[in-house]
Amino acid sequence: MSEFNYETISQYLAGELTGKALATFEKQMQEDANLAAEVNIYRTIEADQLFITKHKAEKEKLAASLQELNKTYFKEPKAKIVKINRWWYAAAAVAAAVVSILILRPFGGENFNNEKLFAHYAKNIESLSTGERGTGSDTLLLEAVNLFNKKDYNNSLPLLKNILVNNPNETDLVIATGVCYMQISEYDSAIKIFDNLANGNTVYKNQAIWYKALTLLKENKIDVCYKVLESLPADADNIKEARELMRKIKEE
Fold first, then answer.
1. How far is Cα 220 from Cα 39, in angstroms, rounded to an integer?
2. CA 123, CA 9: separation in Å to the nearest integer?
3. Domain map (residue ranges) of the chain
4. pLDDT digit of tens for each residue in the chain (252 aa)?
5. CA distances from 46 to 25, 60, 195, 222 (A)
6. Where are the alpha helices (DSSP H) in the chain?
7. Are 193 and 181 in contact (CB under 8 A)?
């Protein structure tokens, strides 16, 4: 992705970038399709969160109005027919408003938001480097790395698995294999790899926890995802994104 981080994107969407910084960022978006796509995803997520917050408040306001109507039209025993008719009109209006909200966003748009959130965070997957490995299969390795970095996970996966047969300690390739499984929705295989790394003592321990959380997010196992995010230590590289994701989950 571009050199700009999510804080810069947030500042841009909030209208906080001005002058040279704004011009530079807009030029970068014109030249970097990935950055432009990232900004659009981030804008969509924020719009969805505002929509849910707004209509949650509206539903609470409607419920309060209904309670007031109930008190008003049933507090006197006389003229029951007139009072009840008015109450039914009010109740019908409330029901219609609530139904319209549910039609627009069934279940508060939870599934839609989960998919967008996953797409947002999964775009920041680290690229692979060939490095100095001494595998004796440089051509195969280069092809696997190239496909992975192009996000062609279906074709990169079998090559990575082939390389790992003789090089099981290449941890960056192991975690890349888990990412491939995650991206093609083979969740059990992905989580098995991430759990093995998270329970070990490699430098990829925290990254594996983060990727496991993303896998659960994509799988729509939100409660479990939240618990995994909570287990990420405060010094983890992805702690900022993890806390942001936890906040968004709480807002659902």
1. 23
2. 14
3. 128-251
4. 344 466 788 777 877 888 888 888 888 888 887 777 777 777 777 665 665 566 566 666 766 766 665 565 555 555 444 444 544 445 555 555 544 444 444 334 444 368 888 988 888 888 898 765 554 558 899 999 999 999 999 999 999 999 999 999 999 999 999 999 999 999 999 999 999 999 998 899 999 999 999 999 999 999 999 999 999 999 999 999 999 999 988 876
5. 19, 21, 31, 19
6. 6-13, 19-31, 33-74, 80-104, 110-122, 138-149, 153-166, 171-183, 187-198, 205-218, 222-230, 239-251
7. yes
Give CA angle at 74 (71, 75), nearest 5°.
70
108: alpha, beta or left, given left = phi > 0 and alpha = psi -120 to 50?
A: left
Contact 151, 182 (CB under 8 A): no
Pick the CATH number of 128-251 from 1.10.10.10, 3.40.50.300, 3.30.720.120, 1.25.40.10: 1.25.40.10
CB 9 within 8 A of CB 123: no
Q: What is the dihedral of CA 190, 195, 200, 201, to 10 degrees?
A: 70
Q: Residue for token digits 């491939």?
A: 180
Contact 45, 116 (CB under 8 A): yes
CA dist 85 and 117 (Å) reads: 46
CA-CA distance, 181 to 192, in Å (whole number)? 10
- Asked if 38 and 3 touch (Cβ cutoff 8 Å), the reply is no
Measured on CA atoms in the order 138, 140, 144, 150, is the torsion positive or negative? Answer: positive
